[in-house]
Design a protein that fits this description.
The complex is a heterodimer. Chain A is about 35% helix and about 15% strand. The radius of gyration of chain A is 23 Å and the shape is elongated. Chain A is an alpha+beta fold. The N and C termini of chain A lie far apart (about 50 Å). Chain A has a 3-stranded mixed β-sheet with strand order 2-1-3, with no helix packed on it. Chain B is of the alpha/beta class. Chain B is built from 8 helices and 5 strands. In chain B, strands 3-2-1-4-5 form a 5-stranded parallel β-sheet, sandwiched between helices. The radius of gyration of chain B is 15 Å and the shape is globular. The chains are: A alpha+beta, B alpha/beta. Chains A and B meet through strand 5, helix 2 and helix 3 of A and helix 1, helix 2, helix 3, helix 4 and helix 5 of B.
């Protein structure tokens, strides 16, 4: 699910005055303009703040400053791009991904199978039952 | 947004292995579905992660628990009276706090890898079925 993005650059426009399907937007201004969020009828965009942007022929784009700030992106950082149905979600790669990688690597190295882990979960269930409900069940 | 109650096996598998369960956790991280569980299930997960057999060290089990706290809504356990009164509904009584927790949570479905559970609880579904529902919701929006 992870993807690395090379250098990003392009233009973005935000603002209720721009229509996504009413003809090509005006990309003539040299500097990005962020007038505010744009509400699209598509998928997730119906409920979240979104901006209209242009992807260059090389597949590059620039995230609006507000989006970078919201993600906590400072300077050059990797992000993850996830395809969800017809939408794309971009998120910052975090320490939590590294932790998950470590956990999975170690468990793989331990030789534990899913079936054995399931047995461990069953054992844990019996313990939790005894501890939390054992007295009431007597 | 779809809300799923998840059992311990789903959460543990999602943390420790790549597969449908990890994808479901990812979807919750992305905010396109909500995962709910209760303290009882969390304790089961913590117990498994602390087993030396897994080879995890130091702060890793607690780190994993912290991830769950971020991605999964943890509800309070059902009261003992309700759980005990449900005896007989499932072959394993230690699954009852999960069943009652699900019923009290208001979630649409219970996600579990336990076939016995799914045969007895009509709203219990596999992880794969849950993922299908999330994507179907996304595409119909």
């Amino acid at each position: 699910m992870c993807a690395q993005i090379p250098e990003l650059s392009a233009s973005w426009r935000g603002g209720a005055s721009r229509e996504p399907r009413g003809g090509p937007p005006d990309w003539t201004q040299p500097e990005p303009v962020f007038d505010g969020p744009f509400k699209s009828k598509d998928s997730l965009c119906a409920v979240v703040e979104s901006y209209i942007g242009k992807v260059s022929s090389a597949g590059q784009l620039t995230l609006p400053k507000r989006i970078r700030k919201a993600l906590g992106l400072k300077g050059s950082e990797y992000v993850e791009v996830a395809l969800l149905g017809k939408a794309v979600v971009i998120r910052r790669l975090r320490e939590e991904d590294e932790l998950l990688d470590t956990l999975r690597r170690k468990v793989k190295k331990s030789g534990l199978t899913r079936a054995r882990v399931r047995e461990l979960v069953d054992e844990a269930g019996r313990k939790a039952w005894k501890k939390r409900y054992g007295q009431a069940a007597r | 947004m779809a809300r799923f109650f998840v059992d311990a096996n789903t959460l543990v598998s999602g943390l420790l292995f790549e597969g449908n369960e990890s994808l479901l956790l990812d979807l919750a991280r992305l905010g396109v579905c909500e995962l709910v569980t209760n303290e009882y299930v969390r304790e089961e997960v913590r117990d498994v992660l602390s087993r030396p057999r897994l080879g995890l060290s130091g702060v890793e089990p607690e780190g994993a628990m912290a991830l769950l706290a971020r991605w999964v809504t943890i509800e309070r356990d059902p009261p003992p009276g309700l759980v005990v009164a449900a005896r007989g509904r499932l072959p394993d009584e230690d699954d009852l706090p999960v069943l009652i927790g699900f019923e009290r949570s208001g979630c649409e479905f219970l996600v579990t890898g336990d076939r016995d559970f799914r045969e007895r609880v009509p709203k219990a579904i596999t992880t794969r079925a849950a993922i299908r529902r999330v994507f179907s919701d996304l595409e119909s929006d």
